[in-house]
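--- STAGE predict ---
source: upstream dedup step, 1 unique chain passed
mode: sequence only
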Amino acid sequence: MVPEDSPLVLNRRAMIGGVGGLALIGLSPLTASAAPEDLRAAIEERFGDRSIEEARVTLKAPPIAENGYSVPITVSVDSPMTEQDHIQSICILSERNPLPNIADFQMSPRTGRAEVSARIRLGGTQTLLAIAETNSGALYSGTAEIVVTLAACVVL
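--- STAGE serialize ---
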């Protein structure tokens, strides 16, 4: 028999407190987000150490997104889309989502125009980054700030 004052004795109060604490931990959403170095690593992995010029790319997004589960965005790039000069890919990156690479679109001169639209999930208020790569290897970027009131990327 274990003495009443032993730390091994489990009484009703300790049991209710422990179960209540576990329930609160299980019900509280913990946001999952990437660090700025994750974004830098994703850019370096995808494009190497090439320089990225902030020009030619327009990223349109709502300034405030009430719900991060479905945020509409449009990325357009000023390009003639000819055989000699065209955009071959558009990459959309996030600084706060658990995985920084949101989407990667491949294009050719037959695409007609360098523009993509999508609905994406966002893990909180952040700056989105779109990088366009030309057929000659030049990189151009554009950004958009989005305030998200209800984050989508949470860990339960």
